[in-house]
Backbone:
């Protein structure tokens, strides 16, 4: 599969086929129902709009070193993507998809940063699993996420289904709140102004295409 030229949506078709063969039909049904319910329940996702100033933050990276937004902005623009976790196949697909275009993002004077509420250990897992060359940061308790996107409590049905499939959801996080950010992408200019802000809603199966990020950086 050549993810270089494929869009996220094209790669999503392959992922859905794979999930259909890997997961019991009932389990996939529970996850899909959850995604549809989230889409229905969450309409106004973004806490920051184009033109707003992005709040500064300092978060631990995969090796527990602190990364500060204001420091990154000294070197150029910053693209921030909020994702759910390393257990989420759609997150892994999105991050791997963005990795393929990382050189283009860098060439346009920007750095890419992925943020989730996972522990630094899990951030390291996601980095290694997807061979990511960009910063993967841990936002324990979704402190930063709340300022940028909507945070919600993961429902019992998907968590219980994960447990039945042998995945320990809670092990990925340092608290037991089960709160997750709704995936969203932001482009932050050097002066901390938001120049692009987008989420495709509560349905986490859909993600912002990297082509949209590239176009936003070209403006």
Residues:
């Amino acid at each position: 599969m050549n993810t270089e030229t494929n869009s996220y949506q094209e790669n999503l078709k392959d992922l859905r086929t794979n999930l259909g063969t890997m997961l019991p039909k009932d389990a996939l049904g529970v996850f899909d129902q959850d995604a549809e319910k989230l889409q229905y329940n969450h309409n106004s996702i973004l806490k920051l709009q184009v033109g707003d100033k992005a709040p500064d933050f300092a978060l631990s990276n995969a090796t527990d070193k602190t990364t500060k937004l204001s420091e990154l902005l000294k070197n150029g623009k910053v693209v921030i993507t909020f994702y759910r976790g390393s257990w989420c196949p759609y997150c892994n697909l999105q991050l791997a998809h963005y990795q393929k275009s990382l050189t283009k993002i860098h060439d346009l004077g920007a750095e890419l940063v992925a943020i989730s509420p996972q522990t630094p250990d899990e951030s390291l897992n996601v980095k290694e699993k997807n061979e990511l060359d960009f910063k993967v940061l841990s936002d324990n308790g979704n402190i930063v996420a709340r300022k940028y996107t909507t945070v919600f409590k993961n429902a019992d049905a998907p968590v219980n289904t994960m447990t039945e499939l042998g995945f320990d959801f809670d092990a990925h996080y340092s608290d037991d709140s089960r709160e997750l950010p709704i995936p969203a992408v932001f482009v932050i200019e050097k002066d901390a102004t938001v120049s692009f802000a987008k989420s495709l809603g509560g349905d986490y199966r859909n993600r912002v295409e990297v082509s949209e990020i590239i176009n936003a950086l070209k403006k």
